[in-house]
Amino acid sequence: MNTVSKAKVVGNTSAKRVPISPMRKTSLLAGILYLLTFVSIPTLALYRSVHKPDFIMSSVSNNEVIFGGLLEIIVALAGIGTAVVLYPVLKKQNEAAALGLVAFRVLEAATIFVGVAFLLSVVTLHQHEAGEGALVSSHTLVALYDRIFLLGQSFIPSINDLLLGFLLYKSRLVPRGLAIIGIVGAAPLFAGYLAIIFGFIGRQSPLAGLAALLVAVFEFSLGIYLVVKGFRPSDITSTSDKT
Fold first, then answer.
1. Are 31 and 225 in contact, with CB atoms under 8 Å apart?
2. What tens digit of pLDDT does each residue of 191-229 get?
C-alpha cells in the first residue's frame, strides 16, 4: 500500500469516529465518582487502633489513621462531585429534588470533614505525646467521630438515595429496577441509624452492616452501570444531546 492509500485509509477511519456525546461524558464521570466513593472501605481496619482506649498512650504509628482520613476526604469530594455532575441532567426531571440532592451531598461531605478533623486531633495529641492527661479528650474526640459518622454515613445517605432513586425512577435514565433498590434501601438504612442511636444494636453489629447493604448495592451498581452503559435513551437525554 502506497503512502497516498495509507493516508486515505487513516482519513476515512478518522471520519468514521463518532465523538462522545455530552450526556455520555456526564454519565461516565458520574459513574467513576460513584465508584470512587467506595475507597474509604479500608477505614474499618485503619481506624481500629485509634478506637483502642489506650491509643493516646501507645507507641503505635499514626500513619493508618492519617491515611484513613485522606481516604474519607476523597470520598467526601467524590460525593459532592456525583451530585454536581448529575444536577444538569436530573434538574430536567425535577429541579427542586435535584437541588436537594446537591445540598444533602454537600451536608454529608461536611460531616465527613468534621469527623476526620476529630480523628486527626487525636493524632495530634498522640504525636505530641500528651499521655494520660489527654485520655479523656481523646476518648471524647473518638466518640464524637463515631456519632457524626452515623449522621453522615447513615441518616443523610438515606435521604440522598431516596432523592436519587426517585429522580432516576421518574426519568428512566437507568433501569427502573436499579432505581427501586435505591428507594427501598433508604428505609433500612434509616432504621439502622435509629437502632444504633437508641442502643438496640452496636455500630459494628452485623445488623448495622445489613441495614446499609441495599444502599451499597445501589450506589456501586449505579456506578458500574453509568460507566459501562451510560444513560438510557429518554426525553431528557435526547433534549440534552441537541443542546
1. yes
2. 999 999 999 998 888 999 899 999 999 999 999 999 999
